[in-house]
Write a structure and sequence with these properties.
Blueprint (H helix, E strand, L loop, with lengths): L1 E12 L2 E12 L3 E5 L6 H9 L6 E6 L2 E2 L5 H7 L1 E4 L11 H9 L7 H6 L3 H20 L15 H13 L5 E5 L7 H17 L3 E5 L3 H7 L2 E6 L2 E6 L1 H5 L2 H8 L6
Parallel strand pairs: 3-8, 3-9, 6-7, 7-8
Antiparallel strand pairs: 1-2, 1-4, 4-5, 9-10
Helix pairs in contact: 3-5, 3-6
């Protein structure tokens, strides 16, 4: 059963066609990967799904609801989480405070209560902190750095903190843009393990963009391949990897003689 679907997405920037009639569905509970050469339109798809871009044509459905015209924050409140290729953390704040910011989209207390920080607002804030500390921080094994400034952390740990912030939103679908880019082998292995744990233990559907084909082959259930803004192939990782059109898109035509 699909939890996320896009229909005939098209996007143009200044006369440049970025996406052209791209359609696909993501099943609830799966790890779905989007791959393709640089400039294929992969990040643009995530930007449309999460509400950063408005498509020129086409629609986005989340849990059967048309969310194409909803703002990004409303989509986040419905359960669409996001991490970014370039780390988007507040570097001067602590790990804990960055993660708590991700969860604040779920707070329900009114503005007056929040300003005076009493009653329901205080109780909700304390519950939020407990959840972040007991569940998200422990889950991603970052207890030892929770009070450190983000700016003081190594790159791989910053990527893990960004993942923690997205998890604090309690997403039903998590969109991940190159989660292992720039990581060494050990960091890549750790991140792949966390992605699988999030999917299996927290029942979060994963949609990821990634250039590391080993990670794609190891953790994804289905793969969509884009080329020049168009859908090229969709299928299981082993089917996609050996498809002639995919080999051509990545490696070019074989030269004769």
């Amino acid at each position: 059963m699909s939890i996320l679907s896009v229909e005939n997405l098209s996007l143009t920037f200044g006369g440049l066609k970025v996406l052209s009639n791209v359609s696909f569905e993501v099943n609830e509970g799966e790890v779905f990967a989007i791959i393709g050469p640089n400039g294929a339109g992969k990040t643009s798809i995530l930007n449309i799904i999460s509400g950063f871009y408005r498509p020129g044509a086409g629609r986005v459905f989340f849990e059967g609801r048309d969310v194409t015209r909803l703002s990004g924050d409303r989509r986040a409140a419905l359960g669409l989480g996001r991490t970014f290729q370039n780390i988007a953390l507040y570097r001067g704040m602590t790990v804990l405070d960055n993660i708590k910011l991700g969860a604040h989209s779920r707070l329900k207390t009114g503005l007056l209560s929040a300003l005076w920080y009493w009653g329901a607002a205080q109780r909700e804030e304390m519950e939020l902190r407990r959840e972040v500390e007991d569940e998200v921080i422990d889950f991603l094994e970052i207890e030892s750095i929770r009070r450190q400034s983000v700016a003081s952390l190594a790159y791989g740990l910053q990527k893990r903190v960004e993942l923690a912030r997205a998890l604090a939103m309690r997403p039903k679908v998590l969109l991940m843009d190159e989660p292992v880019a720039g990581m060494n082998a050990e960091e890549t292995e750790d991140m792949a393990r966390f992605i699988l744990d999030i999917n299996e233990e927290r029942n979060v559907t994963i949609v990821l963009i990634e250039h590391d084909m080993k990670v794609i082959m190891d953790i994804s259930e289905r793969v969509l391949v884009l080329s020049f803004g168009q859908k090229l192939v969709e299928g299981k990782p082993e089917e996609v990897q050996s498809h002639p059109a995919v080999i051509k898109a990545y490696l070019g035509e074989k030269r004769g003689g």
